[in-house]
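Second attempt. The first submission of G-protein coupled receptors family 1 profile domain-containing protein had a stray character pasted in from the spreadsheet, which I only caught after the job came back as garbage. Lesson logged: always re-copy from the clean sequence file. Corrected sequence (203 aa) follows.
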Amino acid sequence: FLLMIMGYDRYVAICHPLRYNTLMSPRDCARLVSCCWAGGSVMGMMLTLIVFHLTFCGSNKIYHFACHVLALLKLACGKETASVTMGVILVCVTALMGCLFLIILSYVFIVAAILRIPSAEGRHKTFSTCVSHLTIVVVHYGFASLIYLKPKGSHSMDSNTLMATTYTVFTPFLSPIIFSLRNKELKNAIQRSFRRKFSSLSS
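This time the job returned cleanly.
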């Protein structure tokens, strides 16, 4: 949901730059963030309610670092397990694909606006503001597709746990780092730090 809102932010900044301060005022930003929290909460509650319909009659050892839904589904037994598993995957994939569709739609308008810029330098500079967001979208949806859309086969429990952990931990951890790399002050501070370190090593 947050990536979708960030795509909308880039759309407003590039397609409606003169109205950006109006459309993305602090109040509007607070509303958009509230919608992200609400959407995530609703998703979490839906998945929790679905999992409550499961029956657990075997091992209670979860092969994961957290109570991941797919790890819980592997411990379930009973006739309803297959339908509940399909329900969970359907909810997750619907939310992921719905948000992805809106992200792609925002970038269709963004690309159309960029192509109307006469200078190549202007097009490059405008598109470079989207690189951080696009990188996170590709990483996030790449791992999500591996988890939810991979075909059933001989996947070890360790590989499933690693992929799920990467999706839930690595992407949120990577996001602020990638977005911070566009901050000139931060880049200059990193460069100064490296220069000091190399100069101290050479001396």
